[in-house]
């Protein structure tokens, strides 16, 4: 009876034969994740943004008019804006410690009438906003001083004969609110809007 | 040697499900205790103030200047419906209010009065401050009126505790509101009240 020979140790596997690591095995799915996660993030984000701000329903992109100049946007020429503080407010029902700022914005449609919401006054340093006041300060409605875009035609049978006119608006702002301001007009059906810089 | 080990196993095997049951019940009870009421996830953010004290939330700042009660209400125009007077029990709230940031869509669109479990909306009749435009940084004044059932009146005074809640959007979920407790017992019911005219705040 002899002692049986113990088995020989197996030779160490060479580097090429070693089982591949987890990262290496899954490199294709990992690569896919690397691409898909940002794509999903951007896709969902864009979809939500478009739902809220798309379709031209809200004003998103400001187009600043040159100083004392005009701007062509959405089928009309806007400006040049005239603005100033109305000092003679004796006849108006003005609240205490406020200023009355007025702006006149000429609108010249290229052919058909354009639609727009009433202009907004924005303090450039803070973003605080004011909308036009009229009846609140005792100024009755006046056909010649529209606060939103109008669609008067030179020739009733030709829709492409819109006449030029001016938007006339006044804002009541607290006395301690200082300029410069933006006057913003938002033509309907476009995410761009017209911005004039004023400092009355 | 094997018999005591088997007995011990049986004993722990019985204990485990019972202790797990107790732990789960305790956990459920604790969760139920700390959970907020239904609808809390969309609750308003309330800023509390009192009569005469200014308060601000989001785009609204206001001060309730007076609270009155009366049997008959008249608005500054003598009521819109042919000068008739409104009979009932009315709570009238006078206030100054302004927008802080933007005038866009800024009206006093939410005004509710809660007495006990019941909630009343501000009247839309007559000329009141309800849904009136607010101006950025420039306060306007006016009155809100709430028509109340007769059971909140006792003798010559109102009773119960009331909370007034005001805001700009008509839907105040997830939004800021201003809450003002109204001391009803201290309110004598007058025979007749004329609503404050809606306009700029004076002095």
Structural description of this entry:
The complex is a heterodimer of chains A (200) and B (203). By secondary structure, chain A is α+β, with helices and mostly antiparallel strands. Chain A folds into 2 domains: 15-53; 61-198, Immunoglobulin-like (Sandwich), CATH 2.60.40. Helix content of chain A is 16%, strand content 27%. Chain A has 2 helices and 10 strands; from the N terminus they run ααββββββββββ. Chain A has helices at 22-25, 27-53; strands spanning 61-64, 71-73, 76-78, 82-85, 98-109, 120-123, 129-130, 165-174, 181-185, 192-198. In chain A, the strands form 2 sheets. Chain A has a 5-stranded mixed beta sheet, with no helix packed on it. In chain A, strands 2, 3, 4, 5 and 8 form a 5-stranded antiparallel beta sheet that branches. Chain A is elongated and about 130 Å long. With 203 residues, chain B is an alpha+beta fold. Chain B has 2 domains: 1-35; 43-198, Immunoglobulin-like, CATH 2.60.40. Chain B has 1 helix and 13 strands. Chain B has one helix spanning 2-34, and strands at residues 45-48, 55-57, 60-74, 86-99, 110-115, 118-121, 140-148, 153-154, 157-158, 161-167, 176-183, 189-194, 199-200. In chain B, the strands form 3 sheets. In chain B, strands 2, 3, 4, 7, 12 and 13 form a 6-stranded mixed beta sheet that branches. In chain B, strand 5 (110-115) and strand 6 (118-121) form a beta hairpin. The longest helix of chain B is centred in the first third of the chain and has 33 residues, at 2-34. Chain B is elongated. The interface between A and B is medium-sized, with 17 and 17 residues.
């Amino acid at each position: 009876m002899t002692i049986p020979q113990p088995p020989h140790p197996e030779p160490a596997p060479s580097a090429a034969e070693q089982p591949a690591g987890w990262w290496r095995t899954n490199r294709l799915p990992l690569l896919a994740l690397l691409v898909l996660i940002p794509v999903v993030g951007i896709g969902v984000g864009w979809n939500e943004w478009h739902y809220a701000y798309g379709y031209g329903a809200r004003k998103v992109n400001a187009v600043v008019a040159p100083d004392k100049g005009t701007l062509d946007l959405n089928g009309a020429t806007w400006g040049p804006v005239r603005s100033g503080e109305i000092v003679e407010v004796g006849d108006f029902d003005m609240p205490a410690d406020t200023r009355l700022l007025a702006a006149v914005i000429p609108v010249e449609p290229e052919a058909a009438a354009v639609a727009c919401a009433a202009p907004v006054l924005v303090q450039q340093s803070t973003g605080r906003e004011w909308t036009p006041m009229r009846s609140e300060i005792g100024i009755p409605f006046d056909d010649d001083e529209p606060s939103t875009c109008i669609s008067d035609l030179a020739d009733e049978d030709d829709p492409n004969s819109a006449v030029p006119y001016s938007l006339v608006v006044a804002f009541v702002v607290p006395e301690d609110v200082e300029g410069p301001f933006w006057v913003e007009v938002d033509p309907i059906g476009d995410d761009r809007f017209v911005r004039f810089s004023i400092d009355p | 040697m094997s018999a005591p080990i088997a007995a011990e196993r049986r004993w722990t095997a019985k204990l485990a499900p019972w202790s797990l049951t107790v732990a789960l019940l305790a956990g459920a009870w604790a969760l139920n205790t700390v959970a907020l009421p239904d609808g809390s996830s969309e609750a308003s953010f309330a800023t509390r103030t009192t009569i005469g004290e200014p308060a601000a939330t989001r785009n609204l700042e206001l001060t309730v200047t007076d609270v009155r009660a009366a049997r008959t209400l008249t608005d500054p125009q003598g009521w819109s419906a042919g000068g008739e007077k409104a009979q009932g029990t009315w709570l009238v709230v006078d206030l100054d209010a302004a927008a802080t940031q933007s005038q866009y869509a800024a009206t006093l669109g939410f005004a509710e009065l809660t007495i006990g479990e019941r909630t009343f909306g501000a009247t839309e009749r007559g000329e009141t401050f309800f849904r009136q435009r607010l101006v950025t940084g420039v306060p306007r004044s006016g009155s809100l009126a709430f028509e109340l059932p007769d059971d909140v009146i006792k003798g010559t005074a109102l009773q119960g505790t009331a909370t007034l809640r005001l805001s700009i959007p008509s839907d105040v979920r997830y939004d800021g509101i201003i809450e003002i407790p109204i001391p009803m017992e201290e309110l004598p019911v007058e025979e007749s009240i004329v609503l404050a005219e809606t306009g700029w705040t004076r002095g």
